[in-house]
Amino acid sequence: MNWTTYWNQSTIFDRIMRFSTRFFCQRADAVLGLEADSRILDIGCGPGYLEEYFVDRVEHITALEVSETYLQQCAGRFRNQPGVNVLPLDVHAYTQIPVPREPAFTHAIVLSVLQYYRNASEVKALLSEIRPRLRPGGRILLADLIVQPGSILDVLTFLVCALRAGFLLSALVFLWRCRFSEYFKMRADNGLLVLDAERWMQILQELGLSGRWIKRTLTCNPTRANLLIEIEMNTKAKTVMNAKSKLEKKE
C-alpha cells in the first residue's frame, strides 16, 4: 500500500481533521488576504472542511482530491453550493491539475499534503502546475511542511496546541489510535517527505519563484513550517492595482 491508496479508506484522521483544519483557517486568514472576489484552488481538500470555513467569504473554491472517499464526502457536502467545484486528481498523476492552464485563481492552498509526496521532483511538478493558474499577485500557501525529522517535541507541541484550541481530549484519543493504526505502519514503511528550509528555497529559485516563511503558527503542528509564495505582478497588473487602491482611498 502507498499513501494515495491509504487515503482512499476510512482513516483515524477523520475526526481530528475538522478541528485541525478550522485551527488553520482561523490563523491563515490574515496571511492569505482573502477578499469577496477571491478564487481559491485547494489541493488535497479532504472532506471539505476548509471549503466549509471559507465558502461564504470568497467568490469560488475549486477543491481537488485524490481520495475517492473524500471526494464523495466533499461533493456531498457542497452539492447545492455553486461556489464550490469538487474535482478528482488522477491517482497516478496527482501533481497534474485538472483545470484549464489559465490564471483563474487568486490563491492556492496546499495543506498537510506535501509530506506524502515521494520526492522534491514531485513538489516542483505541482508548483509548476499551480503557477500558470494563478493571477498576477496571487498567493500560494504551502502549509504544515516538515523541514526537520520528527521527535517527541512534535507530540508535545501538538498537545499544547490542542489544549489551547479546546480539543485536547480528541487529540489524546487520536494519538492513542494512531500508535496502533495502519497509519503508524505506513509511516514506518513509506516515511514522510522531509525537505529542509534551504532545499525549499532552492526549489523556488529553480522555478523562478520567491517566497517567505510565515513565523506565526498556522497548524496544530507548531514544529512544522509554512511557506508563502507570491506570484509577481507584471507592469500592467501593478498599474491596475495602484489605480484600484487610489480609487478606494478616495471613496
CATH class type: Alpha Beta
Mean pLDDT: 89
CATH topology: Rossmann fold
Integer count of domains: 1
The total beta strand count reads 7
Regions with little confidence, pLDDT below 50 for 5+ residues? none
| Count of alpha/pi helices | 10
**CA-CA gap between termini:** 58 Å
| DSSP strand content | 15-25%
Largest sheet: 7 strands, mixed
Please state the overall shape, judged from the principal axes of the Cα atoms.
globular
Outline the structure in words:
The protein is α/β, with parallel strands linked by helices. It has a single domain, classed as 3-Layer(aba) Sandwich (Rossmann fold), CATH 3.40.50. 45% of the residues lie in helices and 18% in strands. It has 10 helices and 7 strands. The protein has helices at residues 3-6, 13-32, 49-54, 68-77, 120-130, 152-165, 168-179, 182-190, 197-207, 235-250, and strands at residues 39-43, 60-65, 84-88, 105-111, 134-145, 211-213, 225-230. Strands 3-2-1-4-5-7-6 form a 7-stranded mixed sheet. α3 links the parallel β1 (39-43) and β2 (60-65).
Helix and strand topology:
Elements: H1 3-6, H2 13-32, E1 39-43, H3 49-54, E2 60-65, H4 68-77, E3 84-88, E4 105-111, H5 120-130, E5 134-145, H6 152-165, H7 168-179, H8 182-190, H9 197-207, E6 211-213, E7 225-230, H10 235-250
Parallel strand pairs: 1-2, 1-4, 2-3, 4-5
Antiparallel strand pairs: 5-7, 6-7
Give short descriptive properties of this protein.
Rossmann fold; seven-stranded mixed sheet; about 250 residues; alpha/beta
